[in-house]
From TrEMBL:
Top-rank taxon: Eukaryota
Annotated source species: Acorus gramineus (Dwarf sweet flag)
Protein name: Sulfotransferase
InterPro entries, alphabetized: Nod_factor_sulfotransferase, P-loop_NTPase
Keywords tagged on the record: Membrane, Transmembrane, Transmembrane helix
Residue ranges crossing the lipid bilayer per the database entry: 21-43
Length: 347
């Protein structure tokens, strides 16, 4: 009788000596799980709130729509034809000209700058450049929407803005500038606001890599009289920049190519439910008729578009890569073999 509390105590002490670690781990695990669950719920709610904060067609846009006679528009076009009413100026005589919204989704060194100069040579197109290269504009989804609203309401000022008589307005947007991160919200925005997607990719990702390395080198060295240029307008300038032959890291080459390929594939997967067109840089280079397809896609009057940019790397790849032999060995027989083009083995 006297012993029992003592034994109890012993048992208790022994138990509490053996199990605390296990017990604490279990408690910790449960607490973590619960914490993660709470975080998940919170995030879901924030997302939903962001969705609904966004107003389908702003009051400005609706007001103009009523003023204009939209009965001439085919039904399928109505989601994509907009009548913005800019806050900063009046569209004047072009008030009732419908405007299409677009976004060029692309990757660095895939010809999007060149493509954009073509678009902007059309007197009814305002492609406002790489707006989201500025980090603050993509630090959260509200900032992204705020910026997009401003662009599509024709309130964004840039050298490309045609203002009152724009019939198509948009921007150039790199996949690593928040698109993949916020893809759900952006796809939702594109679908609700009738934004069309223009994918622009480069087929030969090895050539793209050469261009990236050469561009990075010029950013440091500034070969053209101390000025860094990503795009050039004369043959002389192009020749200076093309003289540099980068070394490609063959250890990470396959993986680097795969990463770029996956990025493009993911973008298409996410955005394929928006109205879209897929373009390849190589096709645009060899066939300018593709530019007519783009103008039809944007429902703008067809024009002969021009660009004054000059291609930098025009030589065969073998003459543009410092360690071509190694690159050739790594890619030969791999799934990226076709990037080597029709060049024979190195001699
Ligand atoms: C609107 O456009 C349609 C088709 O072009 C035309 O038949 C109609 O008269 C127009 N209505 C007004 C109010 O201008
Ligand atoms: C986004 O960033 C802006 C500017 O820093 C801030 O005012 C706003 O509250 C942020 N919005 C969200 C949803 O985090
Ligand atoms: C294109 O712009 C011109 C003025 O530069 C304007 O007269 C014309 O109506 C516009 N076309 C379209 C389709 O908006
Ligand atoms: C560099 O500047 C000189 C003198 O201003 C000019 O003659 C030359 O064409 C420039 N070179 C390049 C590559 O721009
Ligand atoms: C090449 O890539 C590998 C793997 O990513 C890396 O460890 C190595 O440092 C790179 N070499 C150079 C010269 O950058
Ligand atoms: C050039 O592009 C147009 C429009 O996409 C296409 O119809 C035509 O077949 C292409 N021509 C060649 C030679 O590929």
């Amino acid at each position: 009788m006297v012993q029992s509390p003592c034994t109890d105590k012993q048992v208790y002490v022994q138990a509490s000596k053996r199990s605390p670690i296990l017990l604490r781990l279990v408690v910790l695990f449960c607490a973590t799980l619960f914490g993660l669950y709470i975080c998940y719920i919170c995030l879901q709610q924030i997302r939903t709130r962001v969705y609904f904060k966004y107003d389908l067609l702003g009051p400005n846009i609706l007001a103009t729509r009523e003023q204009c006679n939209i009965s001439a528009l085919p039904h399928g076009e109505r989601l994509y034809a907009h009548y913005p009413k800019p806050k900063t100026y009046s569209r004047g005589g072009c008030l009732c000209n419908p405007v299409r919204f677009f976004a060029i989704l692309s990757m660095q060194r895939s010809g999007s700058g060149w493509f954009e100069t073509f678009l902007n040579s059309h007197h009814n197109v305002s492609s406002n450049g790489e707006i989201f290269s500025v980090k603050d504009r993509r630090k959260n989804i509200s900032e992204v929407f705020y910026t997009l609203d401003k662009v599509f309401n024709l309130d964004w000022s840039s050298s490309a803005a045609k203002n009152e008589c724009s019939a198509a307005v948009g921007l150039k947007w790199m996949l690593n500038q928040g698109i993949l991160k916020y893809h759900e919200e952006i796809v939702e925005y594109f679908k609700h606001r009738g934004v069309s997607t223009i994918f622009l990719f480069r087929r030969n990702l090895l050539r793209r890599m050469v261009s990236i390395l050469a561009n990075a080198y010029d950013r440091d060295v500034k070969q053209l009289n101390g000025t860094h240029k990503s795009h050039v307008h004369s043959q002389t300038e192009a020749e200076v920049l093309a003289q540099y032959k980068p070394r490609i890291n063959v250890t990470s080459l396959i993986l680097d190519l795969k990463k770029a390929e996956d990025m493009a594939a993911n973008a298409v997967k996410y955005f394929k439910s928006t109205r879209h067109i897929i373009l390849y840089y190589e096709d645009l280079v060899s066939n300018r008729t593709k530019l007519m397809d783009v103008q039809d896609f944007l429902s703008i009057p067809q024009r002969d578009l021009i660009s004054h940019q000059v291609k930098i790397h025009t030589r065969p790849l073998s003459a543009q890569v410092e360690n071509w032999d190694d690159v050739y060995k790594v890619l030969k027989g791999s799934k990226y073999e076709n990037f080597l083009e029709e060049e024979g083995p190195p001699i």
